[in-house]
Backbone:
């Protein structure tokens, strides 16, 4: 599977609740500092749907560090696809599984898409549990 499972997709849309257009963003923090807040933002839009960032951040030497940040395509056809994974600090990681260029051409790495979807399915479940959604 190269997209989020239905359970993770439901949590994803709960996180996205109330956000409609590029630039809309929110921070979810229901844990009184016990867990990192979750930052959700619609960062772009293509003919395929909204591009969404979900991230945890921490501060190091005055800089915000991703721990991690993932971007997703919230497809107009009804599936949510992971696009990128970034992790700062230590050995930084930047993985691009799908990108959409200025001509709306999709380039993707199916093996990485599957790996990121597996991670995202687990991660959004953890976010749901931690944030009591």
Residues:
């Amino acid at each position: 599977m190269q997209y989020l499972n239905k359970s993770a997709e439901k949590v994803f849309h709960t996180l996205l609740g109330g956000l409609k257009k590029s630039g809309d963003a929110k921070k979810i923090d229901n844990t009184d500092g016990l867990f990192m807040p979750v930052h959700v933002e619609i960062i772009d839009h293509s003919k395929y749907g909204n591009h969404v960032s979900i991230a945890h951040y921490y501060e190091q030497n005055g800089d915000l560090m991703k721990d991690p940040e993932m971007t997703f395509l919230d497809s107009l056809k009804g599936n949510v696809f992971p696009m990128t994974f970034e992790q700062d600090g230590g050995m930084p990681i930047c993985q691009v599984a799908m990108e959409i260029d200025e001509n709306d051409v999709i380039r993707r790495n199916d093996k990485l898409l599957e790996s990121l979807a597996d991670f995202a399915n687990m991660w959004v479940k953890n976010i749901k549990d931690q944030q009591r959604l």
About this structure: The chain has a mean pLDDT of 95. Residues 25 and 34 are 22 Å apart (CA to CA).
